[in-house]
Amino acid sequence: MRLAITVWNGRIAPVFDVAGTLRLVELSGGAVVQDQLLSFPRDGGMFSRVTSLSQQKIDVLVCGAVSRPVHRMLADSGIEVHSFVSGDAEEVLEAFLNGSFDDAAYFMPGCGRGRGRQGRGRGAGIGRRGRNGGFGPGWKEV
Amino acid sequence: MEQTKAILESISDGVFTVDSNWKITSFNRAAEEITGISREEAIGRECSEVFRSSMCETACALRESMASGKPVLYRSGYIVDSDGERIPVSVSTAVLRDENGSVLGGAETFRDLSEIQSLQKQLYETYRVEDFVSRSPSMQKVFKIIPAVASSPATVLIQGETGTGKEVLARAIHSSGSRSGEPFVAVNCGALPDTLLESELFGYARGAFTGAAHSRQGKFEAAGRGTLFLDEIGDVSTAMQVKLLRVLQEKTITPLGSNEEIKVNARIICASNKNLSQLVESGEFRQDLFYRINVVKLDIPPLRERLEDIPQLLEALLKRHSFALGVDVKDYDPQILPLLMGYNWPGNVRELENFVERAVVLSREGLVSFGDLPPEIIPEKSVHHSDAGTLRNARADTEKQMIVQALENNRFNRTAAAAELGIHKTTLYRRIKALGISLPSSDGRSSNATNTT
Fold first, then answer.
1. How far apart are the first and last CA of chain B?
2. Is residue A7 part of a domain?
3. Mean pLDDT for the stretch of residues A91-119
């Protein structure tokens, strides 16, 4: 399995759409066989950003906030996306490797499962929840 | 302190503060509303994980303020909210210090620009009909009548120089009316000799001529209940004009080699790059056909007469071609805009579009710059700089050209020329003297001003 994490200053990069560094980890039989940092060009547009992940044959992506159209592109290219994740990149990777990764423990502020969120006056108002069954980011599924 | 809190809670701009470790220490009501994050969740968290902006990694205004000690104002970007919506924002930042001047952290204010951008978009939409973009007063008049024209079956005549967008306007009329779901068929009448044009427009029956093994539908028939666009109608022969007149009068066509009459249901839009009334006067165009097609006449001014459209066209064409070619060219170097505005564009919007397409292909840095301009757009005067030898001479040369141009533009009225150049009148006098520019004895206030250099 090939896992990619967008990183910045040792943490999960805040916004996938503009993230500049990708940590690429290849796992085989539960062991890390490859671990490298790749630069992620910011000037190529969203399509080339998603395409480059596909070309790297990424199976799973762990990242911070991601805009809706980009998430759709990622999902369409068959990548399992764990978005709106925050925290220390090493800790998140470790949790992922030992099978204890739980999105809820690493959700960015305002994206908590079942906690809802305050409206911005553009939608359903106070207490409005994410589109997918009340889960803020709700974008784990492919 | 309470008073400051009350003020922060009442304003519509989001405000948050951070400590020296980039952890959020306060988060006002507007910040909660714009981001959708409650202050309980925000306080104590990394600001980049709460704010989640496009600027965090590479252009953090707060980081800059903390490093320089100076405020950063109105930096634009977007944040991504929990629903994955990109919210455009403008941010300003400042350093927070205690009474001894020691840095406590930073403060960031941000404004949701969604509504402003939506209003800008609405404004932009008023300057376009389908793909036709224009803010010139003459085109605005045309835009106003398009809904009425589109919903009527009346024949339309569009006149304008080559490349002004006659077909684009014809398509806009077609798309705005009830025929939008039907075919739009365009024929360039000027490109075909009579015999070919006749078979193209009316079609032919099997065996109509040697080699006609199958019958073929003409464009009048192919357009069905849609629109038939006859471009360069002023170029058709007088014999062909008679045939067209008959079709327009009787609303039927007879394919070559056939006796069967076919009803014409299509709406006809004609266009010409020539002035048809002048062609009527000179006897080159039939008056009766002219009156038939001149039911609604729309004139498209050449691009040089609607310079105000150039920036919007440049922007729209850059987006279109960057997308079509799959490249990321975002903008134009502001320095080339005066050259683009100053060029005559004899080929009109088509020439402008060709320039943009070429520039998008050639541009390597995500920005259309001076090096991407074709030679005809660069004024000869600019090219002569290299003869001057030194940078000082080149600068003086350019300055001289600009001053002379401004003086000529304002009929040697020094005050008006200075205003155009954005300098004070006395500075202009000083530069005129220093650069050795000779002036006529009279200026723009008298009528007998003469040319000079």
1. 67
2. yes
3. 73
